Amino acid sequence: MIMRFRSLQILVATIAALTLSSYIVFETSSPTFGEPTASESTKKDEVLMQVLINSLKSSHYSPKQINDEFSEDVFDLYLKRLDYAKRFLLEEDVQKLSKHKSQIDDAIKTSDYEFFDLSFEILTKRVKESRSYYEELLSESFDYSEGGQVELDGEKRGFQSTKKELKALWSQLLKYQMMARIHEMEKKQEETSADNDTMTIRSFEQVEAKARKSLSKSNQRFFDRMEKWNRDDLKEVYLNSIMNVFGPHTGYFPPKDKENFDISMSGQLEGIGAQLQEKDGYIKVTRIVPGSASYRQGELEEGDMILKVAQATDAPVDVVDMRLDEAVKLIRGKKGTEVRLTIKKISGQIKEISIIRDIVVLAETYAKSAILQNETGDKIGYIKLPKFYADFNKTGGRSAAKDVKIELEKLKSEKVDGVILDLRGNGGGSLRDAIQMTGHFVKQGPVVQVKGRYTKPEVKKDNDMTVVYDGPLIVMINHFSASASEILAAAIQDYDRGIIMGSRSSFGKGTVQRFLELDRALTAADRDLRPLGALKVTTQKFYRINGDATQIKGVGPDIMFPDQYNHIDIGEKEHDHVMEWDEIPAASYTVWNPTYNEEDIIVRSKKRIQGNSVMNKIDENGIRLKAESEQTVASLKYDEYVIKQMNLEEQEKEFKDMLVPIESLLVSNLASDLEDIQSDTIKVDINEKWMKKLKKDVQLNEAVLVASEMNSAS
User: Fold this and answer.
1) pLDDT of amino acid 303
2) Pairing state of beta strands 418-422 and 379-384?
3) Per DSSP, what are the bridge partners of residue 350?
4) CA dist 238 to 59, 104, 442, Å?
5) Would you tell me which CATH number, out of the four given (3.40.350.10, 3.90.226.10, 3.40.190.10, 3.40.50.300), belongs to the domain 363-511+540-713?
6) Once rounded to an integer, what is the mean pLDDT over residues 500-516?
């Protein structure tokens, strides 16, 4: 794993103003460094620090005490971001910086940047020294038959004591990267030659030379980028290390970054449709945007790391250690153009995928329904809701609550015996629609509680006495169901209105953020210091109507499915310095009192799941992925690397081949939808792919069985 300097950048697909949104990831991307500038702790630096801290103290839901403990937390986070992979700093550098470990709180209070300036000076010096390492080490071939190992997780490595030891680490890391490139090139050559008898096959030595040249250029670009950066870029990392100790969703946006954020919110951007964040040197996929090119292509998944980006037939560009905004420029592009991504799966498998860029197909973001049947003959209505969309400008646009109501009415006209609302992968959106949609299934009453720092809990209610659907109900969730999805699922569970089925828990983000424009905090005398940028600060928390926070814990299912992420930490708990779980008094509400015996149904479902061979394979695959993700020590022998990759590919293929159409599960469109679907060949194609996907969904099949049992017992 390679070091990544981190400065504030985000790419978010959708957000619902200041109320509730898809979970928003604030991570820092890597700045790089050139010659130190003459800039010191100017008045603007001093004022900026005080405005940030004062804003946090007055506005944050749970502000931290600026003391020695806080100082040590900032130091640890900043050092991690300064040199995650421990490729640049020596042990003596860390010792020198550590003298300030318990003094950062005092520096914050006095707007003193001495510690920061020292870190900039040391890092700039070490980065310059490191440039010679790759140049020398890649000037000749490695011995790929020679053994040895390398620790790929920088967090598990210690800082090196001498430059000699540091150069040896560079040698290990570069050799590992070379093995990955050689294997990728040999694999592609083998695949291409199978369809081309006249193709000239390169020898291992020729492939190795080409891979070495490519890696050398990649490192050259990396260091060239570093020379374009200065003190202000690292200052973003330092300030955000302070901000992020208040919480992972609190962060400082310099003016240019706030502008980039506003642009990303202003409309549809052509590209692959993935929400990305920088994490420990890699560009990580945190969410696939419903209706996007990635969503329809199907191979890119949450948790994947993007290693390289290539335009159509052009040579790939290494994006490891690249600033997130720079990597996004390579990934984003015009509709209809091809981008090839080299990705690393959670298992460690490295593969290349091709995606044709496109704008989001809005129809794929909207609620849609189908009819599902099993051997019992019961007709179960199925509604897929990718996100809680809404028209906040009130221009007559569509909203999730209205559309789900329409789908429910259509399903009722088909005389369904139960309804499944699928919120798997739904990252959230409109709080208003989450409340209104809950009201489709329950009578008037509370749905969620919202609490601010200085205010009592406010109970958000559904005020409509009408119940659109009162039959058997199942809500499906997974680890990527967040915010609005968690609110609806929690309310249904608290009312005992239906059964929640899904992975170990939902995402667990139960906080609300808003932007503060820092210029507004300036006095008249300091207005010439504008612009300062903005602060994103956590101001509220969500609570279930039973009083529990959704923060960290999320929503636990009544019936848990095996899932490939069940054994891995996914969600809010994955971040540093997350706000803790707590509880408040419950709101006043009346449970539904179902006519079926919920406990018996749950017991029977769990028994079926335990006896389902496919479900067991999914769980085994999840255990395997956890073991693979924790195995961070890799062999430096090429033959062993190739065998490892081949095994991972074989295991993935075996897992995918296991997911076959379920004979007993019948999937069909609603009669009222057929005319619209058949009016367009593109709609026909999209619908056929959706039907096939549903037929293979073993979790959905179990939900259908549970819904049938709920109906027969009603």
Assistant:
1) 86
2) parallel
3) 344
4) 21, 11, 49
5) 3.90.226.10
6) 96
The neighbour count for residue 80, using CB atoms within 10 Å, is: 16
Report the phi/psi class of residue 348: left, alpha or beta, with left for phi > 0 and alpha for psi in -120 to 50.
left
φ, ψ (nearest 5 deg) of residue 355: -130, 130
> Cα(333)–Cα(342) distance, rounded to whole angstroms?
17
Length of the chain: 714
* Contacting residues for 413 by C-beta, under 8 A, at least 6 apart: 672
pTM of the model: 0.86
Alpha-helical segments (H) within 579-697: 598-610, 613-630, 638-658, 671-677, 681-695
Q: How far apart are the two ends of the chain, measured CA to CA in Å? A: 55
Cα(688)–Cα(36) distance, rounded to whole angstroms?
59
Q: Is the dihedral of CA 628, 634, 638, 639 positive or negative?
A: negative
Report, as residue numbers or ranges, the catalytic residues. 483, 494, 509
Q: What is the pLDDT of residues 76-93, one digit of tens each?
A: 999 999 998 999 999 999
Q: What angle do CA 501, 598, 406 make, to 5 degrees?
A: 55
- How far apart are the C-alpha atoms of 622 and 492, rounded to whole Å? 28
Collapsing DSSP to helix, strand or coil, 710 comes out as helix
> In the numeric block, which tokens belong to residue 536?
């994103």
14-18, 270-274, 325-329, 340-344: which is most confident: 340-344
The segment with the largest mean pLDDT, out of 224-228, 386-390, 575-579, 606-610, is 606-610
Q: How far is Cα 532 from Cα 334, in angstroms, rounded to an integer? A: 33
Peptide bond preceding 63: is omega within 30 degrees of 0, i.e. cis? no
How far is Cα 653 from Cα 646, in angstroms, rounded to an integer?
A: 11
Residues 6+ apart with CB under 8 A from 220: none
Q: Take residue 690 and report the two structure tokens written for it.
A: 């959706």
Q: How many CA atoms lie less than 13 Å away from 391 in the CB half-sphere? A: 10
Label the pairing between strands 499-502 and 559-560. Answer: parallel
**At what angle are helices 484-494 and 431-438 packed, to 10 degrees?**
20
- 20-24, 222-226, 562-566, 700-704: least confidently modelled range: 20-24
Helix (H, G, I), strand (E, B) or coil at 198: coil
What are the residue boundaries of the structural domains of the chain, listed by start? Answer: 27-247, 269-356, 363-511+540-713
**What fold is seen in the domain 269-356?**
Pdz3 Domain (2.30.42)
- State the amino acid at position 133 in one-letter form: Y
